């Protein structure tokens, strides 16, 4: 400082406060698991993550996350990992979730006042331990290694990172004592990390494994989802590949209905029914999408996957809890999302009319569209091993025509059986729909007992 300068250096307290204010506790923790997932990607690329794990342990005294996902090199720790914001020169990880260079630090500050980061890679290991309040008093923006070794050999299975936070903030400690909080955390991890989980990354919370839930689309040829793949930007650096699916789910479920937006496999928006994904607010009717979401659309499912080797080109915000709706890529993709959604919305309006036309609400006899829905098989879109059946546009099923068939006069058989028994028969028959279960078991009896 000279007589001619003024001090514009940010205070550490301001930084800590600003960083942690805008992110809730759960997304801050998810950020740490994202780092494990990025470690796994760096190790395995697009392959299986089997054998890799990320373990969370929370109690009212302590938070800990440990993984065996490759670790942080001393070089990366020294130059980049502990800095606020991604410094230029940081080696990029292709297709990573990490992008902004804040997640780990923000999570640590959000959780408590003392932390320890221990990490080992095949050729180095280090420990950094700090009391945040004491650090905030110092002028230097540095941490000291408590121990560091750059001349070591660690077997790959022992390479990983452990972050421990103690002196938890009071509200954090209280949350960690609540079952309800832990359930919310599990649900969030399940949804946000379904991609790495389905690739084999084993995530646990206090020892309990977190499974990815399949995300199912109906796949009957008359109901299969529309699919569109797009590419934006100038390949290879900035190419953003977009895959859009819009169709129907198996259950009428408000928690699944709407659009799910993923960036590099990370869920950013879940079951969105807002203007962000094309549902128009107010009274306007634009592109055939109705003014706003309504429970009659509870079967609608949309998935939008944005993927890029350069995470900086993806339309997410820094907390990865929502979109950067200013993104030109997102705005272009959204028009396509609305195009795909329109016929599905039309179909669901039609279905509502069919149901309204029934003389009796309790009438067990289903209308032709409802019948078709009930009998359709479904497949998981989230599972990378599956090749989901899709088509270019969702077109309305021609159910009326289906009923008029040539051949003998037909009789409909309808009955209920215990679900577990039906599932076992379905499995044994290797069929996908209950309709097939009915037909195959009927033919089995017919062939054995009736026909000569
Ligand atoms: N569990 C981990 N395994 C391997 N490397 C890690 C781990 N945690 C952190 N790192 C390293 O530390 C860096 C900083 O992590 P941090 O979460 O702060 O930022 P980021 O992941 O780069 O970006 P973002 O803010 O978008 O998460 C990472 O880029 C990565 O190199
Ligand atoms: Mg990160």
List the helices and strands and how they pair.
Elements: H1 12-21, H2 25-44, E1 53-58, E2 63-67, H3 74-81, H4 103-111, E3 112-120, E4 125-131, H5 132-137, E5 145-149, E6 160-168, H6 170-176, H7 179-192, H8 194-198, E7 202-205, E8 208-210, E9 216-218, E10 226-232, E11 240-248, E12 258-263, E13 266-272, E14 300-307, H9 328-356, H10 368-375, E15 378-380, H11 399-403, H12 419-429, H13 434-450
Parallel strand pairs: 1-7, 12-14
Antiparallel strand pairs: 1-2, 2-6, 3-4, 3-6, 4-5, 7-8, 9-15, 10-11, 11-14, 12-13
Helix pairs in contact: 1-4, 2-4, 2-7, 12-13
What does this structure look like?
This protein folds into 3 domains: 12-210, Heat Shock Protein 90 (2-Layer Sandwich); 216-397, 2-Layer Sandwich (Ribosomal Protein S5, domain 2); 404-450. The protein is elongated, with a radius of gyration of 27 Å. The model has no long low-confidence stretch (mean pLDDT 89). The strands form 3 sheets. The protein has an 8-stranded mixed beta sheet. Strands 10-11-14-12-13 form a 5-stranded mixed beta sheet, covered by helices on one side. The protein is α+β, with helices and mostly antiparallel strands and 452 residues long. 34% of the residues are buried. It contains 13 helices and 15 strands. The chain has helices at 12-21, 25-44, 74-81, 103-111, 132-137, 170-176, 179-192, 194-198, 328-356, 368-375, 399-403, 419-429, 434-450; strands spanning 53-58, 63-67, 112-120, 125-131, 145-149, 160-168, 202-205, 208-210, 216-218, 226-232, 240-248, 258-263, 266-272, 300-307, 378-380. Bound molecules: adenosine-5'-triphosphate (ATP) and magnesium ion. Adenosine-5'-triphosphate binds next to helix 2, helix 3 and helix 4. Magnesium ion binds at residues 31, 34-35, 98, 103-104.
């Amino acid at each position: 400082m000279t007589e001619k300068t003024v001090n514009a250096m940010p205070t550490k307290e301001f930084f800590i406060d600003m960083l942690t204010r805008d992110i809730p506790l759960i997304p801050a923790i998810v950020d740490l698991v994202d780092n494990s997932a990025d470690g796994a990607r760096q190790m395995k690329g697009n392959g299986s993550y089997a054998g890799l794990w990320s373990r969370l342990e929370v109690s009212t005294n302590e938070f800990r996350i440990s993984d065996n996902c490759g670790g942080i090199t001393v070089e990366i720790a020294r130059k980049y990992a502990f800095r606020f914001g991604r410094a230029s020169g940081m080696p990029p990880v292709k297709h990573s979730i990490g992008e902004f260079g804040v997640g780990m630090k923000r999570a640590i500050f959000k959780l408590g006042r003392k932390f320890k980061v221990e990490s080992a890679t095949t050729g180095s290991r280090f420990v950094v331990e700090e009391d945040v309040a004491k650090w905030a008093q110092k002028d230097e923006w540095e941490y000291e290694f408590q121990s560091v070794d750059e001349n070591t050999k660690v077997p790959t299975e022992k390479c990983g990172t452990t972050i421990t936070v103690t002196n938890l903030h009071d509200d954090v400690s209280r949350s960690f004592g609540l079952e309800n909080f832990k359930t919310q955390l599990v649900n969030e991890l399940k949804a946000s990390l379904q991609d790495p989980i389905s690739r084999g990354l084993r995530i646990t919370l206090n020892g309990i494994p977190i499974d990815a839930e399949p995300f199912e689309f109906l796949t009957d040829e008359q109901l299969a989802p529309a699919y569109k793949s797009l590419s934006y930007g100038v390949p290879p650096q900035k190419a953003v590949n977009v895959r859009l699916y819009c169709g129907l789910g198996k259950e009428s479920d408000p928690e699944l209905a709407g659009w799910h937006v993923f960036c590099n496999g990370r869920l950013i928006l879940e079951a969105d029914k807002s203007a962000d994904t094309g549902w128009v607010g107010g009274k306007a009717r634009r592109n055939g999408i109705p003014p706003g979401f309504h429970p009659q659309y509870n079967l609608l499912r949309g998935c939008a996957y944005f993927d890029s080797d350069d995470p900086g080109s993806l339309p997410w915000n820094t907390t990865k809890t929502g979109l950067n709706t200013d993104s030109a890529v997102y705005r272009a993709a959204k028009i396509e999302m609305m195009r795909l959604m329109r016929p599905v919305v039309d179909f669901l309006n039609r279905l509502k009319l069919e149901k309204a036309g029934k003389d009796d609400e309790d009438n067990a006899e289903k209308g032709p569209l409802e019948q078709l829905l009930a009998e359709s098989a479904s497949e998981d879109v989230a599972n990378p091993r599956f090749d989901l059946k899709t088509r270019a546009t969702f077109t309305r099923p021609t159910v009326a025509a289906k009923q008029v068939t040539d051949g003998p006069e037909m009789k409909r058989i309808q009955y209920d059986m215990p679900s577990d028994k039906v599932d076992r028969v379905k499995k044994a028959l290797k069929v996908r729909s209950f309709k097939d279960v009915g037909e195959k078991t009927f033919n089995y009896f017919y062939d054995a007992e009736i026909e000569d």
